[in-house]
Automatic annotation (TrEMBL):
CDD domains: DD_IQCK. It comes from the Eukaryota. This is IQ domain-containing protein K. It comes from Paragonimus skrjabini miyazakii.
Length: 191
């Protein structure tokens, strides 16, 4: 029986037991408790325990206590950045999960809290040096307030340049520049 088949069998047994037991869902508090229990064990005993436990137990003890709070935080961040209200957005769930899981790794808590950007992670910066990412379009980089300020500034410039006096001044500046360029070119040719 393959690993995947064992996981499916254990999952089916777990589903059947859920209806009978009082503890029907894995709650956040329980995840955090299990994570703290695992994090206090020595690293060598963790390796032994992780290699001997069942796939379902491995998921519940090692994976879910880290992944569920990370996914919850990702959903809150996506909601804060209004990703559920727009068709296109600059938020990347994978980038957020990578940074969150790197910062909250229970084996390396102290030295990773100061990492605030994805580019601060050593292996990410190494990968990006070899495979650079294309930049996000400005429409996805700017917040709504920044985009509104840019559009308003552009529109104010357009309406200002339509005023006849301003047009006249711009035309005079253009002629003045052309006169100075011709004068400079004649000076350089004469020397």
């Amino acid at each position: 029986m393959s690993l995947w088949e064992r996981i499916l069998v254990e999952c089916q047994i777990e589903k059947e037991n859920l209806f009978c037991s009082e503890k029907s869902v894995l709650v956040k508090g329980q995840c955090e408790e299990e994570l703290m229990n695992v994090a206090t064990l020595p690293y060598d005993s963790l390796l032994v325990y992780s290699s001997q436990c069942s796939p379902t137990e491995y998921l519940q003890v090692f994976i879910f206590p880290l992944l569920l709070p990370a996914m919850e935080a990702m959903l809150h961040e996506a909601k804060r950045q209004k990703c559920f209200e727009r068709r296109r957005f600059g938020f990347s769930g994978l980038d957020f999960l990578t940074l969150f899981l790197y910062q909250n790794n229970p084996l390396y808590v102290q030295d990773r809290r100061n990492v605030t950007k994805l580019n601060d992670i050593p292996w990410v910066s190494d990968h990006w040096e070899q495979h650079p990412r294309p930049p996000l379009p400005l429409s996805l980089q700017w917040t709504e307030e920044e985009a509104a300020a840019k559009i308003q500034a552009y529109w104010r410039g357009v309406t200002t340049r339509r005023i006849p006096e301003v047009r006249e001044l711009l035309e005079w500046q253009h002629q003045w520049r052309m006169y100075n360029r011709r004068k400079q070119a004649a000076k350089e040719d004469g020397i």
